[in-house]
């Protein structure tokens, strides 16, 4: 464990839930007592060894932690620069990093005596992970999913339904992740007594960004230990994709106070950062505003109306980002870069053919940044990519893009 | 601080009846018709005007108000136009209080100081900003009070006695009691305990308490008006606009649809008199 230092970047948020000017608790009064209760329950759980032991036990025996750190030998040879490693979060039960957070939160919901779970989902990865823990713990759950996403990620919709979840398609707005989150908030405000809102990313009102980060921080902690075992040092660069940013913050957090480790977040550049409303890169192409309970970088117009954005990846198709990323962007500790749909598609194919690993389109954005970085680095330098999810859910939509399906 | 709000409640008290607060969305269904609706509200019986600032992501609103906001935005409404509407209204009516209601982001992006100065100059009396709880008072509430605007807070069924003082602190003008845990336009349960909740709030403050969310008809206005200092109606009015449209466009009947609805609600609050 790194000791907490006064000037550490790992101390956030403050008591108001702020990371610098970002974060906060911008919610309706109806929800305010709930998030104060949640914070209290979370603080109690944090110092309860029984809770920590339960999270660890489920992590090992249910999720399959630790996930391997894998040396991508053929990709490294192809790129001809830095040695590339994958943190294999896609091997987790349910196929992504999402389960790390869901296990922590479902245990918390149980401690709080909640009897119903709701969640939003974009690509369906968080929806599947939530439906999974709800099945495991015998709690009914309702998943809000944009109607557009229901169509482009239907295999995950089937999985959720088979796991016993009710999937509610959301038709307001463009029918993507932002609209699903609005609808989940509307449900929560209506069913405050019984319902726990299991947010899937490190965003929303305090304490969600901190809590989700902490449940995901196991990724970076494992990378640090595994990498030291493999190479006897710290990596030179660490890369993760950023939608809301939960896998990225979980990956980065262990390294924030290690200045020699360069951190890169790959945002969804869609059709290109210059195409109006054609991307979902909130930090590269947006500005600070207030949405979904927190202040953070947002895609918005001159009047403060939120834009829908676009990404080939349903999981990155969100006009905001977790508040801690906004802070790390302003302080320049992390470099956030836009990756276009086409770059992600190329990375998807390269990884599949060279390494025999089909990555999620979200993770392919991170991989595309690795493809750019590695050749610029020396052969004795190293990069770790958080391979946050597997691409089974994406084979049909990628197949369409590539013309393999008529 | 003097706004038009206390004077208007005093007038209603003198008439022995609760106040009617109407919510309409600025610029719905188009800027000109929206202005005509706003201008017609006092004569139809609105005591206090809540004017919605449209926002793309109204998390506390049900389908009726969501749709009204989308219509307004599609017709080109923005914050500048909303403030200009108030200014135009004030040239004809200097007594009816106007409260702008909405979400924080469009205000934040306009710039808090610039917004407060422009709102005060236009003749706005108060603000209701749904996603700014007392924990975020530094953002807008305190600057608004300094600028001479009322900051009206929502109290809800989840606001318990321990929390109520924090919610009432820095609240001015009136307290808006949300009748239920839910979104605008939902159905109030018959045994909602609204009267008891209003009394609970009044034991903590001298401010008038207005009840809103789920009040749709003249009968509702009479029923809930008897238990409070005023009632707020929004979704029913937004739906009246919707019902008057032809292919999404305003018709000759659009303004009348609103004034008829408001006149009916006004008769409801008058019936609550001397209950």
Q: Label the overall shape of chain A.
A: globular
Helix proportion range of chain B: 40-55%
Computed over alpha carbons, the radius of gyration of chain B is 17 Å
Shape of chain B: globular
Question: What portion of the residues of chain B fall into strands of 2 or more residues?
Answer: 5-15%
- Roughly what is the average pLDDT of chain B, rounded to an integer? 95
Distance between the termini of chain A: 53 Å
CATH homologous superfamily designation of chain B: Aldolase class I
Helix-and-strand structural type of chain A:
alpha/beta
Explain what the structure shows:
- The complex is a heterodimer of chains A (406) and B (275).
- A 6-stranded mixed sheet of chain A has the order 3-4-14-9-10-13, sandwiched between helices. In chain A, strands 1-2-12-11 form a 4-stranded antiparallel sheet. Chain A has a 4-stranded parallel sheet with strand order 7-6-5-8, with helices on both faces.
- Chain A has helices spanning 32-46, 49-63, 73-79, 98-111, 125-137, 147-152, 154-162, 177-190, 208-216, 218-231, 246-252, 282-285, 323-330, 341-355, 361-373, 395-401, and strands spanning 18-19, 22-26, 69-71, 83-87, 116-121, 141-146, 166-170, 195-197, 237-241, 262-270, 287-291, 293-298, 334-340, 382-386.
- Chain A contains 16 helices and 14 strands.
- In chain A, helix 5 (125-137) packs parallel to helix 7 (154-162).
- By secondary structure, chain A is α/β, with parallel strands linked by helices.
- Chain A is globular.
- Chain A folds into 2 domains: 27-60 and 98-212, Rossmann fold (3-Layer(aba) Sandwich); 64-95 and 217-401, Rossmann fold (3-Layer(aba) Sandwich), CATH 3.40.50.
- In chain A, a hairpin with a 1-residue loop joins strand 11 and strand 12.
- Chain B is globular, with a radius of gyration of 17 Å.
- Chain B is of the alpha/beta class and 275 residues long.
- In chain B, strand 7, helix 9 (194-202) and strand 8 form a beta-alpha-beta unit.
- Chain B starts with a helix and ends with a helix.
- Chain B has helices at residues 4-14, 31-44, 63-74, 79-90, 104-110, 112-122, 141-146, 164-168, 194-202, 218-226, 235-244, 254-271; strands at 19-25, 48-52, 98-102, 126-129, 150-151, 154-155, 175-178, 209-212, 230-233.
- Chain B is 45% helix and 13% strand.
- In chain B, strands 5-4-3-2-1-9-8-7-6 form a 9-stranded parallel sheet.
- Chain A binds chain B through residues 16, 24-34, 172-173, 178, 182, 185-186, 189-193, 289-293, 295, 298, 300, 302-306, and chain B through 55-60, 62, 66, 73, 78-79, 103-110, 130-136, 153-160, 163, 167, 178, 181-183, 186.
């Amino acid at each position: 464990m790194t000791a907490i230092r006064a000037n550490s970047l790992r101390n956030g948020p403050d008591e108001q839930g702020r990371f610098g000017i970002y974060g906060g608790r911008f919610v309706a009064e109806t929800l305010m007592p709930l998030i104060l209760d949640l914070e209290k329950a979370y603080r109690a759980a944090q110092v309860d060894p029984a809770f920590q032991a339960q999270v660890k036990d489920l992590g090992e025996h249910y999720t399959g932690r630790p996930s391997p750190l894998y040396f991508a030998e053929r990709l490294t040879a192809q790129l001809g620069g830095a040695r590339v490693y994958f943190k294999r979060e896609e091997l987790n039960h349910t196929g992504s990093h999402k389960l790390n957070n869901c296990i922590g939160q479902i245990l918390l919901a149980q401690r709080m005596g909640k009897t119903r779970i709701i969640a939003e989902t974009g690509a369906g990865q968080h929806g599947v992970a939530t439906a999974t823990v709800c099945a495991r713990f015998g709690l009914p759950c309702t998943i809000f999913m944009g109607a557009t996403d229901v169509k482009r990620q239907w295999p995950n919709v089937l999985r959720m339904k088979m796991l016993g979840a009710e999937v509610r398609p959301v038709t307001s707005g463009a029918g993507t992740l932002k609209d699903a989150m609005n609808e989940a908030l509307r449900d929560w405000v209506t069913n405050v007594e019984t319902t726990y809102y299991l947010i899937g990313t490190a965003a929303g009102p305090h304490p969600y960004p901190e809590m989700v980060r902490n449940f995901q921080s196991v990724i970076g902690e494992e990378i640090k230990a595994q990498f030291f075992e493999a190479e006897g040092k710290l990596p030179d660069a660490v890369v993760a994709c950023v939608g809301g940013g939960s896998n990225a913050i979980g990956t980065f957090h262990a390294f924030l106070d290690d200045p020699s480790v360069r951190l890169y977040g790959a945002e969804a550049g869609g059709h290109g950062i210059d195409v109006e409303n054609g991307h979902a890169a909130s930090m590269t192409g947006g500005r600070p505003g207030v949405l979904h309970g927190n202040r953070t970088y947002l895609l918005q117009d001159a009047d403060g109306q939120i834009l829908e954005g676009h990404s080939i990846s349903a999981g990155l198709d969100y006009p905001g980002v977790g508040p801690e990323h906004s802070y790390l962007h302003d302080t320049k500790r992390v470099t956030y870069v836009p990756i276009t749909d086409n770059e992600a598609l190329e990375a998807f194919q390269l990884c599949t053919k060279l390494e025999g690993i089909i990555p999620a389109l979200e993770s392919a954005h991170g991989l595309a940044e690795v493809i750019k970085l590695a050749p610029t680095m020396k052969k004795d330098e190293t990069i770790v990519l958080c391979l946050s999810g597997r691409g089974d859910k994406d084979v049909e939509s990628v197949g369409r893009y590539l013309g393999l399906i008529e | 601080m003097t706004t038009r709000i206390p004077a208007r409640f005093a007038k209603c008290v003198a008439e022995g009846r609760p106040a009617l607060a109407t919510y309409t969305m600025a610029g719905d269904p188009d800027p000109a018709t929206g202005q005509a609706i706003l201008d017609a509200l006092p004569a139809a019986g609105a005591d206090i005007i809540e004017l919605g600032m449209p926002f793309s992501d109204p998390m506390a609103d049900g389908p009726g108000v969501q749709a009204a906001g989308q219509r307004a935005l599609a017709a080109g409404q923005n914050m500048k136009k909303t403030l200009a509407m108030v200014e135009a209204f004030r040239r004809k009516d200097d007594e009816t209080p106007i409260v702008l209601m909405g979400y924080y982001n469009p205000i934040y992006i306009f710039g808090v100081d610039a917004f407060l100065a422009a709102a005060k100059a236009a003749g706005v009396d108060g603000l209701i900003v749904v996603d700014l709880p007392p924990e975020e008072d530094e953002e807008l509430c305190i600057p608004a009070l300094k600028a001479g605007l009322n900051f009206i807070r929502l109290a809800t069924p989840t606001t318990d006695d321990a929390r109520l003082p924090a919610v009432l602190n820095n609240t001015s003008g009136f307290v808006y009691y949300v009748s239920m845990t839910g979104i605008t336009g939902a159905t109030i349960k018959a045994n909602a305990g609204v009267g008891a909740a209003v009394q609970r709030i009044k034991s903590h403050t001298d401010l008038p308490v207005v009840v809103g969310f789920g009040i749709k008809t003249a009968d509702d206005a009479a029923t809930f008006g008897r238990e409070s200092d005023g009632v707020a109606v929004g979704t029913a009015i937004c739906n009246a606009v919707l019902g008057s449209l032809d292919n999404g466009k305003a018709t000759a009947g659009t303004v009348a649809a609103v004034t008829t609805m408001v006149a009916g609600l006004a008769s409801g609050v008058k019936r609550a008199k001397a209950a």
